[in-house]
């Protein structure tokens, strides 16, 4: 007879930015796929990973019809406080999983985002004030978004093992989607082995 506490779960999960599961959370004009990036989730399914959808700090703070913005505009005391509260909730989930012997394999996010960029965010001193015609790709710089910074701080403050963070560059329509997905699968394969 099977132990009633054992079942088919892998005890491995990833924490995923909301917009990767629901493009409706993206700022208008940057949705590259209709609903979710199915190929990303096919890869996660292939490696038997559970998915925890993180909340979208921007949608909760400014709504769906918000303006495009850059990190320097979001990098305020109020928005950081908002992100820290959300990050603390994610750290609680991770702590509960760790306590039960589960593993948070990775945090997946969207590079280029002012809040969820992992290695690429946006910054432009010309943004702010009256809306003007600006090119978002011209504002991309190396660095992490506000929410990713606060999430790392919350994980560290909770004394948890820091999972690897990975940013998918899905906002750049000129980027080769096949190359993005191949790099992503190599990352997932690496963290699961």
Structural commentary:
With about 190 residues, the protein is an alpha/beta fold. The protein has one domain (about 10-190). It has seven helices and six strands, in the order βααβαααβββαβα. The strands form two sheets. A four-stranded parallel beta sheet has the order 2-1-3-6, sandwiched between helices. Helix 2 runs parallel beside helix 7 and helix 5 (about 75-100) crosses helix 6. The protein is globular and about 65 Å long. The two termini are about 30 Å apart. InterPro entries: TudS-rel.
Distance between the termini: 30 Å
Tally the beta strands: 6
Rounded Rg:
17 Å
Domain count:
1
The low-confidence runs, each spanning 5 or more residues with pLDDT under 50, are: none
Secondary-structure-based class equals alpha/beta
- Strand order, largest beta sheet: 2-1-3-6
| Nearest-integer average pLDDT | 91
Question: Largest sheet at a glance?
Answer: 4 strands, parallel
Percent range for β-strand residues: 5-15%
Give the topology string: H per helix, E per strand.
EHHEHHHEEEHEH
Question: Tell me, what's the shape?
Answer: globular
How many helices? The count is 7
Which percent bin holds the helix content? Answer: 25-40%
Q: What are the main properties of this structure?
A:
193 residues; alpha/beta; globular
Q: In brief, what are we looking at here?
A:
InterPro entries: TudS-rel (IPR054648). With 193 residues, this protein is α/β, with parallel strands linked by helices. It has helices spanning 18-21, 38-46, 57-62, 71-74, 77-99, 146-157, 177-192; strands at 12-16, 50-53, 103-110, 120-122, 140-142, 165-168.
């Amino acid at each position: 007879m099977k132990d009633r506490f054992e079942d088919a779960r892998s005890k491995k999960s990833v924490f995923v930015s909301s917009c990767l599961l629901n493009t409706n959370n993206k700022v208008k004009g940057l949705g590259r796929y209709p609903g979710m990036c199915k190929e990303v989730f096919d890869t996660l399914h292939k490696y038997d990973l559970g998915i925890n959808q993180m909340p979208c700090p921007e949608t909760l703070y400014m709504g769906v019809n918000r303006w495009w913005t850059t990190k320097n505009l979001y990098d305020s005391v109020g928005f950081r406080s908002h992100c820290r509260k959300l990050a603390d909730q994610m750290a609680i989930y991770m702590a509960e999983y760790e306590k039960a012997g589960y593993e948070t394999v990775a945090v997946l996010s969207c590079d280029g985002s002012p809040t969820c960029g992992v290695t690429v965010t946006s910054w432009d001193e010309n943004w702010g004030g009256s809306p003007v015609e600006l090119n978002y790709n011209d504002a991309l710089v190396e660095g992490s978004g506000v929410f990713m910074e606060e999430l790392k701080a919350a994980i560290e403050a909770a004394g948890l093992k820091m999972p690897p963070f990975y940013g998918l560059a899905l906002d750049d329509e000129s980027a080769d989607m096949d190359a993005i997905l191949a790099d992503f699968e190599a990352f997932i394969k690496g963290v699961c082995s």
